[in-house]
Design goal:
Blueprint: H1 4-10, H2 19-28, H3 35-45, E1 60-63, E2 68-71, E3 74-75, H4 76-82, H5 85-94, H6 100-112, H7 118-126, H8 133-147, H9 154-176, H10 190-199, H11 205-217, H12 225-235, H13 240-252, H14 259-270, H15 276-285, H16 303-315, H17 319-339, H18 346-355, H19 363-384
Antiparallel strand pairs: 1-2, 2-3
Helix pairs in contact: 4-11, 5-19, 6-9, 7-8, 8-9, 8-13, 9-10, 9-19, 10-11, 11-18, 11-19, 12-13, 12-19, 13-19, 14-18, 16-18, 17-18
Bound molecules: coenzyme A.
């Protein structure tokens, strides 16, 4: 029997890299380099873990060159056109599209779990009216972990959290504006219920469809920052609520959620389509980024932006909406022509969310409602084949240093960070 160390020494090490990482390795390798030197150079370049493959997943595929996005093999274009929030959540968690009996049972289960425990509602009501909506959401999801049924299986918890997160977000909005909280209505689909609970009125079929599409488009996006956060937390075998609470915290950051709100602010600043060119010109001259453009993975138009733009062209009705659409369209043309930069999902999503009655400050919480099925699919996948996620850092601090007793310390004898 070979000893364990000998066995691992003789086994070839398989390292899988993405095409982007492969191309980068080739571009970084110099003739005569050792593998260690190439990997060192790659690490130096991979700030933000760019192009690093951090694990395997069968949930979501992104082709950044072709602008393609698949959930469990299904094209986002098809899902947006033909699916619903419930069906997409089922697909993400179970890996296949449901039969009509499965979808019926799943939707009924989710519908039955939309009510939020009264203790969580009373915590929410105790928050200040001017609380940041994402802070309120984070507190509420953490509280759900305390008050949800402790006997639920992880899959039941996934259904419960996804069902309740929409109710919580709507309640955050109603509480902020001193409006009576609208409870979920039986028999309504998820998207329709969400809009009803936020606005207080039943949406038109067109608005319901648009809301459904918005939720589907945001449902998953591989190892984005919040999903990665959720997987890291799940990998410690912590509970589902903690993982989702962490994901909400990550999504709150303006580099992740929130860009669509900024797009709306940008259109207000631009004011008129005729000003779009000078705005883009001035921003680029100042080396400032224009929100709604560029993406870490997509090197062409984000397919979600393509879908939303097509829908927006059909739904814009009021003069204000038409003006915003035209501003965005012109900005898009300039960015493509001048910088070869393409729209990401956030360029047109704010316009769509406003259209269905979601106020701008609620965009990121609604993004969380859409993303919850994706977070939960990844959490379940992580539990299913777990190893704690624990990477290494390259140490760049001071070398081993003798401890200086306090009476002998002078400002200069203490190493500065
Ligand atoms: C999405 C984003 C964070 C990706 O960041 P990243 O992968 O680190 O890409 P970088 O910031 O390194 O950008 C690469 C180059 O494109 C330029 N660029 C990228 N996005 C840009 C934008 N929105 N406006 C102007 N220039 C942009 C950068 O200035 C950089 O140019 P340089 O190489 O000449 O310095 C970035 O594109 C961005 O900040 N976009 C605006 C915010 C936004 O829309 N966020 C929502 C994302 S879904």
């Amino acid at each position: 029997m070979p000893k364990k160390a000998e066995a691992s020494e003789s086994r070839p090490v398989m390292v899988k890299v993405s095409k982007e990482t492969h191309d980068k390795l080739v571009s970084l390798a110099k003739w005569g380099d050792t593998m260690d030197q190439v990997i060192h150079r790659l690490t130096m370049q991979a700030k933000g873990l760019e192009d690093i493959v951090a694990g395997q997943s069968s949930i979501c595929f992104i082709d950044g060159q072709e602008g393609r996005l698949l959930y469990r093999g299904y094209d986002i274009e098809d899902l947006a056109a033909k699916s619903t929030y419930e069906e997409t959540a089922f697909l993400l968690w179970h890996g296949h599209l449901p039969t009509s009996a499965e979808l019926h049972a799943f939707s009924a289960d989710m519908g039955a779990r939309r009510g939020v425990p009264k203790e969580v509602m009373s915590i929410l009501r105790s928050l200040p009216k001017n609380v940041d909506a994402m802070d309120a959401l984070r507190v509420s999801i953490a509280a759900l972990g305390v008050y949800d049924d402790p006997m639920l299986t992880p899959v039941d918890k996934a259904v419960s959290i996804s069902a309740k997160i929409g109710t919580v977000v709507a309640a955050i909005h109603r509480h902020k504006h001193d409006q009576p909280i609208v409870t979920p209505k039986e028999g309504l689909g998820y998207a329709s219920n969400l809009l009803r609970m936020v606005t207080g009125r039943e949406p038109s079929p067109e608005d319901e469809k648009l809301m459904d599409v918005l939720l589907i488009l945001h449902a998953d996006h591989e190892l984005n920052a919040s999903t990665f956060t959720a997987r890291v937390i799940a990998s410690t075998l912590s509970d589902v609520y903690s993982a989702v609470t962490g994901a909400v915290g990550a999504l709150k950051g303006p580099l992740h959620g929130g860009a669509n709100e900024k797009v709306i602010e940008m259109t207000i600043e631009i004011g008129n389509p005729e000003n779009a060119e000078s705005y883009v010109d001035a921003m680029l001259a100042k080396h400032q980024k224009i929100t709604g453009f560029g993406h870490r993975v997509y090197k062409t138009m984000d397919p979600r932006a393509r879908i939303l733009k097509e829908m927006a062209a059909g739904f814009v009705r009021t003069d204000k909406e038409k003006k915003v659409f035209e501003i965005l369209d012109r900005t898009e043309q300039m960015m493509k022509e001048w910088r070869n930069l393409y729209p990401n999902v956030d360029l047109y999503s704010g316009l769509a969310l406003n259209h269905v009655g979601i106020p701008s400050y609620l965009f990121t919480p609604v993004f969380a409602v859409g993303r919850a099925p994706g977070w939960l699919a990844h959490i379940l996948e992580q539990y299913g084949d777990n190893r704690i996620i624990r990477p290494r850092a390259e140490y760049i601090g001071p070398p081993r240093t003798a401890y200086v007793p306090i009476e002998k310390r002078t400002p200069l004898s203490v190493a500065k960070p």
